[in-house]
Design a protein that fits this description.
With 322 residues, the protein is mainly alpha-helical. It is built from 12 helices and no strands.
């Protein structure tokens, strides 16, 4: 649908039309939410953490903006200064949140929540999942459209196999968790890694002119199956470790990790890919990006094994009953 919208070039909007995909989905979610989600109000509504929000947004901007734009602009002084400011803003944000929690306020990110071993371990699993996902999709889109010369519609059709397995795989997560617990993440990482290997071998053994959507489909099918389990299971594991009374903070925290890592993936893996293109070509640069994602999947597999071995994680009282 995104490719079709871009190809249609509605009112000269070009690639910007892709964002229209979200409009009917958001409208449907809003209508269903009004009917299905019960209204609830706190007797003592918490005040917004304005200072914490500003500091957190500033730290993310100071980190992501130079990583995204610095290479293309030749690393000017402003990019270096922003990178240097990022950890300082992060420290200031941490101090503000600790003070707010000690004073009985409502911090944007509760430090005590991060001290929960299950929460911290589950959130770490999100790093390779979302950084790898966004970095892969960024590089793959460039390979399809600039390397292989596909139009937006053909590029969109090429990635359909990934969606065909990603959606049903995510729906199988409750059954997989009942059978394997957190180790389902390890198995999903293995399937995903095999998919990346199949894609890399396809790129290696097939001439550039013969790379068709059909040739790329087997690797994408496997990648989609692994990603579908990973994306759904990440939230299941993370939220299962959050105390029920702090479910709202936990939900916001998991979503923040997701969005931050998606941006970080484009900024880091995407920059690596673009930086290698002039030296090794687009094929070699994309294979290097696939290798980086493979390393991330290995870390994900090891981390999920460790998480599964922690108390309450592998049995029926763990995330399988969440």
């Amino acid at each position: 649908l995104g490719g079709a919208l871009v190809a249609a070039d509605l009112a000269g909007t070009g690639w910007r039309a892709v964002f229209l995909v979200n409009v009917p989905i958001a409208a449907a979610a809003l209508l269903v939410g009004v009917r299905a989600v019960p209204d609830s109000r706190a007797e003592r509504p918490a005040r917004s953490d304005v200072l914490g929000t500003v500091l957190f947004a500033g730290a993310l901007t100071a980190l992501l903006l130079p990583l995204t734009e610095g290479r293309a602009t030749g690393w000017p002084l402003w990019s270096v200064l922003l990178l240097a400011a990022a950890p300082l803003l992060g420290l200031a944000f941490t101090g503000v949140e600790r003070r707010a929690e000690r004073g009985g306020g409502s911090p944007l990110l509760s430090p005590s929540l991060l001290r929960e071993p299950g929460v911290r371990g589950s959130l770490v699993l999100g790093l390779p999942i979302f950084i790898g996902f966004s970095g892969f999709m960024f590089g793959f889109a460039i390979v399809l459209q600039q390397g292989l010369g596909y139009g937006a519609l053909k590029a969109g059709l090429t990635v359909i196999p990934m969606g065909l397995t990603q959606v049903p795989a995510s729906m199988l997560v409750p059954r997989l968790v009942r059978r394997w617990g957190a180790r389902a993440m390890t198995r999903a990482a293995v399937v995903h890694a095999v998919g990346l290997a199949v894609l890399a071998l396809t790129l290696l053994w097939t001439s550039w002119s013969d790379l068709s959507p059909l040739a790329l489909a087997p690797g994408l099918l496997l990648c989609g199956a692994g990603q579908g389990v990973q994306l759904a299971l990440y939230y299941r594991l993370a939220l299962a470790a959050v105390p029920a009374a702090r479910a709202g903070a936990g939900g916001g925290l998991t979503a923040t990790v997701q969005q931050s890592c998606l941006a970080l993936g484009v900024a880091t893996v995407g920059s690596l890919f673009l930086g290698l293109v002039p030296d090794v070509g687009m094929r070699g640069a994309f294979e290097a990006a696939l290798a980086v994602q493979g390393v991330g999947l290995a870390a994900l597999a090891l981390g999920s094994v460790r998480l599964a071995s922690s108390p309450g994680r592998g049995g029926p009282s763990g995330p399988g009953s969440a």
